[in-house]
Each structure stands twice: as C-alpha cells, then as structure tokens.
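Here is one chain, start to finish.
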Amino acid sequence: MPLTNNMSIRSIVTKYHEFIKRVITGFILGAAFWFLFLYLPPVYFSLVLVGILAQIIIFEWKNLFNIYSPLFWLTLPFYPILPFVLLISMNTNPAYHDLLFILFILVSSHDTGSYIIGSLFGKHSIYPQISPKKTWEGFFGGYLFASIGLMLLLWEQGNMKPWWFILGFALIVCVLSFLGDLFESWLKRCARVKDSGTILPGHGGFLDRFDGILFAVFFFYVARDFLAVIFSKN
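Its structure:
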C-alpha cells in the first residue's frame, strides 16, 4: 500500500510539473504570436511561420519518418509544407489576414479546453487505438471553450453573429482541429514517439502545437472569400 501511495503521489507531482511547464510555455508562445500578429507588419509573422516550418522539416519530421523512406519525401509537400504555404498566403493578403486571427483563436481555445476538461473529467476515449487520452469530454470541453472564444472575439469587435452560426462554425473548426490532432497522433504512434520534438517544454515540438491548425487552414483557405464577407466589420 505505501508503494502504491508513493507512486500515486509521484504521478500527481509529475502531472503538476507538466501542467506548469505547459501553461508557462503556452503563455509565452501565445503572447509572442499575438504581438507579432497584431502589432507588426505581416511580413514578420510570415517569417516566423517560415522559421517554424523549417524547424519542423529539419528537426521534427525525421522523428516521424525515416529520412530514407519514400513516405518522408512524398508526405512532406502536402503535410506540413502546403498548410504553411496557405497560412503565409492568407497572412500576406490584407483581405484574409484577419481570418487567421479567428483560426488561431478557435484552435488554441479548443486545444486549451480539451486539455483542461479532458484532464479533469475525461473518461470516454474517442479513438483509444491511436490516442487514448483524447476523450469525448475533452472534445466537447474544447468545443465549449472555442465557442465562447469566438463569441467574445466577435462581441469585442462589435460584429456579433447569431448563436447558431457561432456554434455551427466553431463545431466545424473544432472537428477539423481534432482530426489534425488525431492524424499527428497516428503518425507519432506509427513512429513510436511521444512528441514530434522537444523544443517547447510541456508541449513537445511545433508540429504538436500546429497539428490542428494545419488541418483547419484548408477549410479557411477554400472558403476565404465567403468568410471574409461573413466576418467583415463593415
């Protein structure tokens, strides 16, 4: 019994330390991103995206695929290079630049909510064969966070939308974000690694943080003209 108690205490302490590292890293990373995105010319944010893509290709991609495998080279142009190209394209176009802010708010809110609610209340795994820690409770908790985040953003901009639109739009993005997360989890499981990298304490690599965005950006890019009109402040 004492051994079991000691193991339980160590587990709690480990989870607490991971949580603290995750929060601190997330806060610093988030603050840097929002400053670059909101207060500097778009070219600086594009350069950051290029740097992150380079980090993923050079240091993280080899952890998921053998560099001599055809899959390494066949997958790379479509994921992650193409999604980053779409992000940079939208960032440099004034007509679509603000859509990226909505994208990042929704995906980051969903990630945060999924982690918090899933850690506290998660019991029912969605796809245990790939990622047993992803639960229905976590997904819907993230969906709630994302819906509230979108509502607050639109309210702050004086551009409120009907409740059904907020819930429906947030659900689409959350599903895509979850699929991106699940896809990267599948890649990591196939490669038998826990994280894509170690550069972000408590989070892993940049691919671990961008996996949801890299799926959701396709929807934003394809529907960019429609979304630009819908979210226009005029």
